[in-house]
Amino acid sequence: MTGYEKHKDDILRRLRRIEGQVRGLQRMVAQDTYCIDVLTQVSATNAALQSCALALLDEHLNCCVTEAIGHGGDRAREKVTEASRAIARLVRS
């Protein structure tokens, strides 16, 4: 089971909304919309992606990592390292 299983519909809804935002960006560029207006929408799309990523990370920490820590051992260390690397990727992006 994935950590986000309980909120899968919400995650999919968010991703569909982001997909719509990207299509809107394509239309804006095709219609020669003013640069700053396009950049504003790019920023909004980035924020939506970050929000979705944070929701997924939260689910991972609360489900997968917590469960592994409960079992202890190498699996727990692996999950914590995996989560730490995911956080580092999010911070760099």
Instruction: Give the strand content.
Output: under 5%
- Poorly predicted residue ranges: none
Helix count? 3
Q: What's the pLDDT, averaged over the residues?
A: 94
Structural class: mainly alpha
> Residue share in helices?
over 70%
Number of strands: 0
Q: N-to-C terminal Cα separation, in Å?
A: 27 Å
Radius of gyration: 17 Å
Oligomer, anyone? single chain
Shape: elongated
Largest sheet: none
Helix and strand string, N-terminal first?
HHH
Structural notes for this entry:
The protein is mainly α and 93 residues long. Helix 1 packs antiparallel against helix 2 and helix 2 (35-71) packs antiparallel against helix 3 (73-92). It contains 3 helices and no strands. The radius of gyration is 17 Å and the shape is elongated. The longest helix is centred in the middle third of the chain and has 37 residues, at 35-71. The protein has helices at 8-30, 35-71, 73-92. The model has no long low-confidence stretch (mean pLDDT 94).
